[in-house]
Amino acid sequence: MTDRPADAPDAEIVCPARPESLAALLAFVAEASARAGLDRDSTFAVRLAAEEVCTNVIAHAYPNGAAGPVRLRFRRDPAAVLVTVEDLGIPFDPAQVARPAADAAWEARPIGGMGWHLVRESVDEVRHEHLPGGGNRLTLVKRLSPDP
Amino acid sequence: MTDRPADAPDAEIVCPARPESLAALLAFVAEASARAGLDRDSTFAVRLAAEEVCTNVIAHAYPNGAAGPVRLRFRRDPAAVLVTVEDLGIPFDPAQVARPAADAAWEARPIGGMGWHLVRESVDEVRHEHLPGGGNRLTLVKRLSPDP
Amino acid sequence: MEVNVEQRGGTSVVRIAGSVDGLTSDALQAALHQQIEAGATRLVGDLSAVDYTSSAGLRALLGTLKLARQRGGDLRLAAVQPGVLRVLELSGFTSILKVFPDVDTAVESFGA
Amino acid sequence: MEVNVEQRGGTSVVRIAGSVDGLTSDALQAALHQQIEAGATRLVGDLSAVDYTSSAGLRALLGTLKLARQRGGDLRLAAVQPGVLRVLELSGFTSILKVFPDVDTAVESFGA
Ligand SMILES: Nc1ncnc2c1ncn2[C@@H]1O[C@H](COP(=O)(O)OP(=O)(O)O)[C@@H](O)[C@H]1O
Ligand SMILES: Nc1ncnc2c1ncn2[C@@H]1O[C@H](COP(=O)(O)OP(=O)(O)O)[C@@H](O)[C@H]1O
User: I need a surface site. Which of B13, C95, D36, D87 has the fewest CB within 10 A?
Assistant: First the structure.
């Protein structure tokens, strides 16, 4: 994991990948989105993608023993918002997650499995890198429509 | 704020100084204390001091507008635990906080004002530094009794 | 998030307000299942004041839908706001859940 | 944290279990004040299962103590564990709050 940029000391959050941390992560994203002046739709989309990714890291990244960290950065560029989520957990490439079937009858519809599908539909781009020392960096890119 | 040490990537938490972050901060301290093998009394003392300091940063460090970050580091040395809490908020030197009166009758006893007193009684040393760019670093030192 | 339940004939109208996310979906699911356990299997979710849902909310809704239908009832939704509706559509929930423009229509759909 | 209330004659025994901290103290205060608002001003806090309190817990206890006494009752504590007792002592609460070794003695102290 690299340093947070010197000019944005409050644009990152690092906390244990545990359910107790979810409120802090969501509050961070809400505050950063408001500060970045995102409109309602972009705020919703970024919040949704960030929640799904964080929930997954909390649930899946550290299957063996104590939870390691989850680090989330929020960057507002002129034309896009970039949310980066890093963990030091097991290798996970979201490209491997199959699109869930959304046409089964209600009896056969599985409960769950929608998270990654919603991430991909909410943001314009999802990048995945394996971190050199182990772990994953996901970058969610939400392009912003220019002011009318 | 300096880098987290390379050998302890999960020994810090950085999150917005907001009430929503308290659960993550407390979970971090609990997990770090367990991992460091602290005994029951030291776990209680470190938890208490850390909670009081974090609660104060959340309540007081950023009086004007949006909450900035609170960064907490946990370090286990052979003979002590060091908990460092940093904010980028208003200058605050805990040495200026008066010891609360603890002898008033119940009718006159103020509700609140006990936090710093409990911090000082729980840990062996409290250090305060003003950070160069603004903000505060508090270091709480809890000495550990050698294993019997 | 807040949840309030109002009885309308044989139907429970569950008014949800706020955000349904990983922090609140368990409470929503508990409130909905409590209705069903108490015998109120005809449920209308009034989502007019719900500004957000994640997949955690979808889980609560689908779990409730299944339980209600297994008991001979149903969960139907009313007044779903655009952002939340998009999540329901993306996840294919609009093909299994009935969504009505307002609470009255949803209640009447049970043929009260 | 969990809070359970049991009536023992004219006294409400409030059994608290877990940690009283900034996350839970509001719920504790609400449960205690609810008793007082309902007319039960004689309260015994059973702290045998409380492993931790911070100043947030002290606030809840002192606020409740004041309200109970203003209404002619009292808040008394029972079976306080060592770590929590030390916090009460450090903050001078043991000079204004009555602490009993067990629940029975605390209940009897109200002269039931
Ligand atoms: N960070 C992660 N690390 C490891 N596995 C993951 C991670 N995120 C997701 N997965 C895997 O991908 C699957 C699909 O995730 P998702 O679409 O969010 O649905 P759900 O979490 O409801 O199963 C998960 O069940 C899990 O097996
Ligand atoms: N991080 C901080 N930044 C600014 N002021 C603070 C900070 N922490 C404490 N204070 C000040 O010190 C006072 C005493 O704090 P404390 O002993 O914890 O009691 P309480 O928070 O209940 O008032 C606070 O009321 C506040 O005015």
Answer: C95
